[in-house]
Amino acid sequence: MKIPLSRIAHGRSGDKGDMSNIGIIAYDPRHYPVLAREVTPERVKAHFGSLIEGRVERFELPNLGALNFLCYGALGGGGTLSLRIDAQGKTMAAGLLGMEIEVDDSELTD
Amino acid sequence: MIRIANGQGFWGDWLEAPVRLVEQGPIDYLILDYLAEVTMSIVQKQKQADPALGYARDFPPLIGRIAAKMKERRVRVVANAGGVNPIACAREVKRLAPNLKVAVVLGDDVYDRVDDFLARGLELKNLDTGEALASVRSEISSANAYIGAFPLAEALATGADVVIAGRSTDTALALGPMVHEFGWRPDQFDLLAAGTIAGHIVECGAQCTGGNCIADWQTIPDFANIGYPIIEAEADGSFVITKHRGTGGRVSLDTVKEQLLYELGDPRNYITPDCVADFTTVRLADDGADRVRVSGIKGRPATPFLKVSISYLYGYKATGTIVYSWPDALEKAKAADGIVRARLTALDLQFEEIYSEYFGANACHGIAAPAVAQPAEVMLRVGVRGRDKKAVDRFTRELIPLVLNGPPTGTGYGDGRPAVREVVAYWPALIPREEINTRVEVVA
Fold first, then answer.
1. What's the gap in Å between the CA of B64 and the closest CA on chain A?
2. Cα B129 off chain centre by
3. Fewer CB atoms inside 10 Å of the end CB: C or N, chain A?
4. Contact: B260, A84; criterion CB under 8 Å
5. pTM here?
6. What's the number of domains chain A is made of?
């Protein structure tokens, strides 16, 4: 079935120059494998469309049940150059948590 | 065990936070993080206008306000409030709090050494683009090397009540007191990485105690009295993140995890002047109400370089807004945007970028935002950036006329035409660490 990522994960996003960093964290560490399978760099880039001009790189932090995405060219120049309201990418995590993922019922039961 | 509290996540953070940290419970060190990259160019301009300025001006009055309590409770302060003029900052602190001993860390400011570096073949190439600094040499407004924890520890060893640094890293403000108290050596990389990650967790103030927390934010208690973070640091590198009893907010596995991931790049390679910390080695454990224990952290040797942050005048920008009400608010706003762009083209104005957003529709998330069938209102925000100040200034005249000569229901122009703002950009570069020699001075 399809569920929004926000049902099993929370997160926080910020900036590194013109890169947006999006951290996504499983509420329950047992759901980390679902995150790792469903939230690929390709899907993150497609989810935001033209907001992310460059590539998306993914790093794994299984110790925190978390993934960290670096989105290149995602902040309109970044820092002081950007003309965007969210020049620091503060809302990107909330945006990514709205993405739909595919899970099996059995993966969500305790 | 020592308690290190962070009372300021940036210059402009909550003024009451550091006062409450000193008054509402036991702490040994109060650290205050004032400097962002944008701050350095601002303070450099202030110093050029007045040689007695060029530092975080909120800082001396704060110390004046808490000086008596600091003495009474033996709280010491470490802050990167010095900007480009730590000595002037220290003199103002001494004027407002004459009974405190104040030490400064100098040597990070390399603004006057740039030509010398270039003449000796240190190109200070842009870390992101590879360009040589010579291309923007005439536009530079500040240049500072990021310094680590050991100069701060050296300053604490003088017995100073207040240590003022210029461009120290945010994480060094927490690690410096640990190095001083526990006698950690420069080659104890696991310990240095632990103190660095403790610093990372608290460097944005309340962002690890419930602020800006997505996890269950509606249930976080008493934001109005949110407690700022405290590190309970042990000599073995383990530590607890907590806050004073009775304060608002929350310290939980969720709040700490969110902040661990904030502004993180490659988690295995968190590079600082002191070490390279590995975030994939962090172990977290619930340690009771509003307490999270952190342990297991590993680190590796620092690199042979220090990062230098250089600011320079890049160009100009302006952004302006108009609000359209329903019906068809988004269609009206898009029509208005098309008209502005047509008029800018007819004027033959050159910009590096014109960018338009539709608030209430999709400004933050683009296609990732849920579609709204009939928004009650939409705000059009148009921005331009370019090297030619006149062109940007001409743009600022093109928005308000739309209220009369464009689509219906345009409003919200009461603040007048947008201001033209200078764009100060950042030039990150590396410099061999032996070029930077810090020194400590006690200010009489």
1. 33
2. 23
3. C
4. no
5. 0.96
6. 1
